[in-house]
Amino acid sequence: MPDPHLTQQLARMGARVVFHAVNGGRDGGEWSREVYWHFHETNLRIRAAAGRLWIVTVDNCSPTTMPCSAPSGVVDPQGQWVCRTEAQGEQFFVHTIVY
């Protein structure tokens, strides 16, 4: 069955890099820290590998007193993190993408 996810549609159209902005809600509870974080992390890795594309992703860090709801950084076309920020607070990163 065809994959209906946007990253796969974009990959089929020739995209090599997807920029992904997250504004995930969180409350600092167990589901925010454990379940949602791992879901987003795994989903990003699977989507990058399935589409053989780079995904650059960032999450809203406010409020900075609790961890983000999803990881921020760069996932390569093999689904590996090549650049990743800390889970909490305002972070900056840079990575050179070569394809």
Q: Largest sheet, described in full?
A: 4 strands, mixed
Q: What is the structural class?
A: alpha+beta
Number of domains: 1
Q: Percent helix among the residues?
A: 25-40%
On the 0 to 100 scale, the average pLDDT is 91
Q: What are the secondary-structure elements, in order, as H or E?
A: HEHEEE
What is the C-alpha radius of gyration, as a whole number of Å? 14 Å
Word description of this protein:
The chain has 99 residues and is of the alpha+beta class. It has one domain (6-84). It contains two helices and four strands, in the order H-E-H-E-E-E. It has helices at 6-12, 30-51; strands at 17-22, 54-59, 73-75, 81-84. The radius of gyration is 14 Å and the shape is globular. The N and C termini lie far apart (28 Å).
Topology (elements, then pairings):
Layout: H1 6-12, E1 17-22, H2 30-51, E2 54-59, E3 73-75, E4 81-84
Parallel strand pairs: 1-2
Antiparallel strand pairs: 2-3, 3-4
Helix pairs in contact: 1-2
Descriptive terms for the model:
single chain; 99 residues; alpha+beta; four-stranded mixed sheet
